[in-house]
Structures are given as C-alpha cells and as structure tokens.
C-alpha cells in the first residue's frame, strides 16, 4: 500500500497528499563495467509535469524503469507515494502500482488485441472481479478521453497511425485512473502538428485529472510548452532540476548547447510568439508579432 508522509497507509481510493510522490536517493545503476547512474538524486513534485532530458544513452529510460520497478538498481533507494519500491513485496506493491500508468516508447501495445482489449489488460489484472460490460465501458471512456474516435476501440494497432497508437497507449496508461503518469518520448516520430496536439492533451489531462507526469523527451517544444520543471541528466547524475528559463542561465556546456543551440532558440522564439499572440489587442505585441513573423531579409 502507498503511505502518506506520516507513514499511514492510504486507503484504496484515497489520493496521495504528500509533496513528493517520487523520491530517488543515491541511485546507482551499472551494467557490468558500464556505470549509467552514480549517486543520482531526484524529487518529483505532486501535480507537476517534470521533463527529463539528457543526451542519448545517459540513462533516462533506465531511471524510469528503476522507478517503476522494472530495473533493480545496484544501490540507492526509490520511494513512490511514500513507500520504497526497492525489494518490496510484489503483493503489497499492488497498492502502489495501480496508482501509476506508463506509456512506453512506441506504445508497446499488444498487436493481437484490439485497442479496447489493450486498455482492458490492466483492468483485468488489478480488478479481476469487474463485470465485462463495465470493463468495456471503462475502456471506451479512456479511449475517448485520449482523443481517439470511439470506433478506435475495435481496431487493431496495425490499423492505426503513429499518432493514434500513442493515444491508444495513453488510454491504456490511464486505465486505472492513475495519479502518476510516465511518458517515454511520447512525441517521438509524430509530425509537428501531431506532437503539439499530444502536448496539449498531456497538459489538459494533468490539469483535469490532477496528474503528476514524469516525461522523458528530446522535444524542445514540449519542454517549453508544457513542462513545469526539467531535470537534466549528465555525468551519471541529475545535474539540475529547474524551469527552462532558469536552466538557460546555468553555465553548463551540455545545457547551453541543448537549450541555446539553433533548435533550442527556434523553440524559444516559437513560444515567445505564442505568448505575444495572446495579447494581440496590445499594439506593442501586435507590432512585435508582425516583425518576428517576417522571414529574415534575403529569404523568401
Ligand atoms: N538491460 C540492460 N543491459 C545492459 N545495458 C543496458 C540495459 N538497459 C540499458 N542499458 C544501457 O544503459 C545506457 C542507458 O540507456 P537508456 O535507454 O536509459 O538511455 P536513454 O537516456 O533513455 O537514451 P535514449 O535517449 O537514446 O533513449 C545505454 O548505454 C544502454 O545501452
């Protein structure tokens, strides 16, 4: 069972009220001689979207897998909803695991099951006594909540576009009404319009369902648009956790290259333009949008 900060066990329908639903302390992960994390610390605040960034192979997915218990760390401790997930009893763990949902890279849907059946998998696992009719109804609701048309319930993953597959994976992640949502590169492989739509969906779900979101991404637009804070993994640790504007002030080579490189600056300009467009009734904003929207001299 999950626990509140005083160590009291939470009832099945009671929400976690502590400040930090995820606390990682002194985490070390090694594969043979390869040390991926060394003494890594991270605290995720309740109700935030935390972006997790870092170069390829810095261990973002390994960190997520460690938190959800799929990767046994070499050392350190991880608490989710106030309860250590390291070496805990799988039976007792159910009270923690049914409070999170995970969207893996690529969706990880079962190809032989329809979208609706995929969403029903965790429902069957955690609530085996639910009547099939009610289970179908819950699955249908989650599919629609994830922005898919109702007809998608009966489709197989192979019949869906990349964006629809992500939404179907999200519907499954939401099956158990989680308080915590893990997203591993949700916008990878989507076109910019599909990616922006998925970002907005994530933000709406966070706000309406009161979710805490752990979001691994390389997508600078996602970081600027929807993340409350961003954790940067480098040198086997979380070297900074802060808002994007505050990270921009840090004098760290990778952070500067990432956020202040050409793609980082383009994402920043796009966000500034969006912000200005919300104030078009003010002449100074309208003027700035007009000037910034113009292509640079010499370019068509
Ligand atoms: N089960 C495993 N056995 C051996 N090595 C592993 C295992 N899982 C991950 N690794 C290694 O750990 C390192 C970190 O992998 P991880 O997938 O977490 O990186 P990442 O930051 O998510 O990268 P990317 O941005 O490319 O997805 C990689 O070098 C990977 O090869």
From TrEMBL:
SUPFAM superfamilies: P-loop containing nucleoside triphosphate hydrolases (SSF52540). Keywords: ATP-binding, Nucleotide-binding, Transport. Residues 22-260 form the ABC transporter domain. Pfam families: ABC_tran (PF00005). This is ATP-binding cassette domain-containing protein. One of its GO terms (molecular function) is ATP hydrolysis activity. Coiled coil: none annotated. The keyword Transport applies.
């Amino acid at each position: 069972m999950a626990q509140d900060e005083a160590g009291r066990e939470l009832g099945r329908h009671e929400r976690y009220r502590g400040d930090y639903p995820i606390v990682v302390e002194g985490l070390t992960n090694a594969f043979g001689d390869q040390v991926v994390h060394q003494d890594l610390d991270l605290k995720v605040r309740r109700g935030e979207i935390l972006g997790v960034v870092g170069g390829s192979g810095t261990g973002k997915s390994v960190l997520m897998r460690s938190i959800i218990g799929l990767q046994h760390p070499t050392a350190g401790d991880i608490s989710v909803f106030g309860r250590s997930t390291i070496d805990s009893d799988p039976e007792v763990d159910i009270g923690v695991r049914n409070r999170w949902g995970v969207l893996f890279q690529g969706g990880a849907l079962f190809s032989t099951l329809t979208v609706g059946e995929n969403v029903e998998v965790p429902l069957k696992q955690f609530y085996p006594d639910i009547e099939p009719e009610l289970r179908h109804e819950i699955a249908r609701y989650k599919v629609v909540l994830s922005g898919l048309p109702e007809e998608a319930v009966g489709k197989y993953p192979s019949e869906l576009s990349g964006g629809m597959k992500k939404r179907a994976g999200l519907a499954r992640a939401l099956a158990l009404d989680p308080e915590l949502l893990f997203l591993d590169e949700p916008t990878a492989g989507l076109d910019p319009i599909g990616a922006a739509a998925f970002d907005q969906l994530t933000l709406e779900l966070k706000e309406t369902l009161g979710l805490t979101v752990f979001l691994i991404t390389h997508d600078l637009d996602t970081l600027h648009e929807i993340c409350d804070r961003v954790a940067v993994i480098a040198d086997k640790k979380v070297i900074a956790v802060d808002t994007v504007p505050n990270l921009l002030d840090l004098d760290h080579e990778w952070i500067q290259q990432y956020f202040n490189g050409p793609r980082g600056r383009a994402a920043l300009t796009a966000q500034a333009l969006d912000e200005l467009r919300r104030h078009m009734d003010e002449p100074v904003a309208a003027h700035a949008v007009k000037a910034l929207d113009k292509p640079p001299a010499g370019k068509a």
